[in-house]
Write a structure and sequence with these properties.
The protein is 69% helix and 0% strand. The chain has 427 residues and is mainly α. The protein is elongated and about 100 Å long.
Length: 427
């Protein structure tokens, strides 16, 4: 009977079942088994890496990551002397490596000859970067969320760091294990070396991602809102081009991530050579370091661009709001000071007694020994505040009925921000 994964146990007795952690010889059904009897109708693989498109490269990278994940399972099996984990890891690696073999390799930096090749290299590099980011970022967010209830300062940060570290550690450990076995044979085992190198690589991963997304880390960890982060940056930052800020953060992140990836590649080679006593082929290490640096630089530049653009856009908006409020307050103050009463008098020309009378009429409390300048300042601030509040109210109520629901929400938030800024300006 063929295996039916959707059949209910009570409706149909399954004669063939699969246990992912059972030994291979005990299996009656193996989803990892390669189909050899069917005719191969796949499209022949192109030998030219320039012909490899974005999604095939993305799929190949995902398969490579999955193979490293299964290798991590194998390392756990070697560590705890579990044949079941080793067997499961080997079968997982086999199926993913078979998928990798169906796709051509991406372009190497040394093969770039012209601008077209360079563009192809960049597109393929992005496809190779996405899976790694997709693994580390959700891990960091999940770790921070799980650590949130812990009433200890810095719990979110530690949780986020562990959330990013563990997947990278597991995958990097498997990657080093695969490299060691590629050099010394499938029977070679050194889980200690694989995990040591994996921990070093994962630590560098956490540091590089944190640097690339530095302005947004508090938001990602849900430690602060984007507005709170923007407020802090406003205090120490200046208004400038969003593109300029994005490029600046991209350059810094690109250099940092490129150096990190090259270092990680060096660690992997060093640990494999130290454990097996076998060096990589001549020129292979240099090529790996160069390509790792360039891939890291492209990935870091991408993250840095997004991070820099988002944060600087928020700073610019806040600075613009502050500038608008300040200009409006100054204009209203000039108007108030220049205003005359029925007798043609301004506050500057009134006597102290007249100013006190004006203050009492507005229910302002004035000290008995207050000077004329102090009373004038109190009257001016009172009138500026009232007129500014009225202008704000008029602005936000203008055509309010014609706004969509989202526009009303946005305008309400904007009104609250301006009122807060107005209060700060008058203090």
């Amino acid at each position: 009977m063929a295996y039916d994964p959707f059949a209910l146990v009570e409706d149909e007795k399954q004669e063939e079942t699969y246990d992912p952690f059972a030994l291979a010889e005990d299996q009656t059904y193996d989803p990892f088994a390669l189909v050899e009897d069917e005719e191969d109708v796949t499209t022949p693989i192109s030998d030219d890496p320039r012909n490899q498109r974005f999604f095939p490269v993305l799929s190949r990278t995902i398969d490579e990551l999955q193979a490293s994940g299964w290798a991590g399972v194998r390392v756990l099996g070697e560590t705890f002397n579990s044949e079941r984990l080793i067997d499961a890891g080997n079968r997982g690696i086999a199926i993913n490596e078979a998928q990798v073999a169906k796709r051509g390799r991406p372009l190497m930096a040394e093969e770039v000859e012209d601008l077209g090749d360079a563009m192809t290299f960049v597109k393929q590099a992005i496809a190779q970067i996405i899976p790694s980011v997709a693994v580390s970022m959700p891990g960091a967010m999940a770790g921070a969320a799980l650590a949130a209830p812990i009433p200890v300062p810095g719990a979110r940060v530690v949780g986020g760091a562990l959330g990013a570290f563990l997947p990278s550690f597991f995958l990097s450990t498997g990657e080093i294990d695969r490299e060691m076995k590629a050099r010394a044979g499938e029977e070679f085992e050194d889980p200690g070396a694989a995990m040591t190198g994996g921990a070093m690589i994962a630590a560098l991963d956490v540091a590089s991602v944190a640097f690339g997304l530095k302005p947004l880390i508090p938001v990602i960890l849900k430690k602060k809102t984007l507005k709170e982060v923007t407020d802090e940056l406003v205090k120490e930052g200046v208004e400038r081009s969003v593109a300029q800020a994005a490029v600046a953060q991209a350059v810094k992140s690109s250099i940092m991530e490129g150096a990190t990836e090259a270092t990680q590649e060096g660690i992997e080679d060093f640990m494999a050579e130290s454990a097996t006593g076998l060096a990589s082929e001549e020129g292979q290490l240099q090529s790996s370091l160069l390509n790792a640096f360039l891939l890291g630089a492209i990935g870091g530049g991408t993250l840095g661009t997004v991070s820099g653009a988002i944060t600087q856009s928020g700073v610019n908006q806040q600075k613009k709001s502050e500038r608008e409020v300040r200009q409006q307050l100054e204009a209203i103050e000039e108007e108030v000071l220049a205003e005359v009463n029925i007798a043609g008098e301004t506050w500057a020309t009134m006597t102290r007694a007249q100013l006190i009378e004006e203050a009492e009429r507005r229910n302002l409390k004035i000290r008995k020994n207050a000077s004329k300048a102090t009373i004038t300042k109190a009257l001016t601030d009172f009138e500026v505040f009232n007129r500014r509040a009225q202008m704000t109210e008029n602005y936000f109520l203008e055509n309010f009925g014609a706004l969509t629901a989202q526009e009303k929400i946005d305008r309400g938030k904007r009104k609250k921000e301006l009122e807060e800024l107005e209060g700060k300006q008058l203090l």
